[in-house]
Design the sequence.
């Protein structure tokens, strides 16, 4: 295990060569990722540092991908999607235009879940969907919308929970076939998101730490799930303020199932069910 000083040296070297700033990531999870990288790449501390200092974009982009955690799934945590479906989107339904941003979208399953839901609600044509992530490899996969079937099959159950069933009325069942949204090839172990869904979102590389609004929009809904957990409290607070400033009023913020807003920012948002609304202060 590396010492705190060594970890700080690595953070500094990454920042100097690439501009990525991990200094306010949660130290424990950052340390775990670096330890794993050293083990997987068969580096020691000195050789890792030397390799970073060579300034090879291919290497540091890969390193960033390895430092960040990309776990995601279709309709992850169905109760959160029930909030989106039954509480948030109905409030936005009358708007002429709706702007949604997925910040930290990873390989895109969250974005396609939203697009499918909007299509089911008949809102897709009126919604602009923006999606961003730091990890360029994950973003490239998100744009392709192509996934390994065996890793995603159990997530089709989430689709059933959100799209087919109604948790508030067990007698209602909306028999939407998977083939409406996915081309599934079990032999080739592929699940491909249908074309008409893939063209809908704008995917862009974006570093939340820098807190720049690269889409030059205010948003009705920001989805930033399972990203802030990797940041320390000070960075979480700066990012939450940034989201606050870039939400319209009324505006909705959805964090991860296990995440909540603590500290000073709590007074800027109302907590409802599995989401937050912007308070006017
Ligand atoms: C665990 S995934 C969450 C994906 C999705 N939101 C979900 O909940 O299923 C976390 C994502 O945050 C991204 N991420 C981490 N730090 C980031 C940053 N500074 N800017 C943008 N994205 C970041 C990672 O690359 C990763 O894709």
Sequence:
């Amino acid at each position: 295990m590396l010492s705190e000083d060594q970890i700080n040296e690595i953070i500094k070297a990454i920042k100097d060569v690439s501009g990525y700033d991990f200094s306010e990531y949660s130290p424990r999870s950052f340390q775990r990722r670096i330890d794993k990288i050293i083990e997987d790449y068969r580096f020691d501390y000195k050789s890792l540092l030397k390799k970073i200092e060579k300034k090879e974009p291919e290497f540091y982009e890969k390193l960033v991908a390895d430092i960040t955690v990309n776990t995601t799934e279709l309709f992850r945590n169905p109760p959160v999607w029930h909030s989106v479906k039954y509480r948030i989107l109905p409030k936005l339904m009358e708007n002429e235009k709706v702007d949604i941003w997925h910040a930290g979208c990873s390989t895109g399953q969250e974005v396609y879940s939203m697009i499918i839901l909007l299509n089911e609600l008949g809102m897709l044509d009126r919604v602009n969907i923006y999606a961003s992530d730091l990890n360029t490899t994950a973003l490239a996969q998100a744009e392709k919308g192509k996934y390994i079937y065996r890793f995603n099959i159990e997530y089709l159950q989430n689709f059933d929970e959100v799209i087919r069933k109604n948790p508030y009325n067990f007698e209602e069942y909306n028999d939407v076939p998977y083939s409406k949204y996915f081309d599934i090839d079990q032999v080739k172990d592929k699940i491909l998101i249908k074309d008409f869904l893939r063209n809908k979102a704008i995917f862009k590389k974006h570093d939340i730490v820098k807190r720049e609004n690269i889409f030059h929009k205010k948003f009705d809904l920001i989805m930033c799930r399972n990203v802030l957990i990797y940041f320390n409290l000070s960075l979480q607070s700066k990012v939450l303020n940034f989201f606050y400033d870039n939400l319209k009023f009324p505006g909705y913020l959805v964090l991860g199932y296990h995440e909540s807003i603590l500290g000073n920012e709590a007074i800027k948002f109302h907590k409802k069910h599995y989401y937050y609304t912007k308070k006017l202060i």
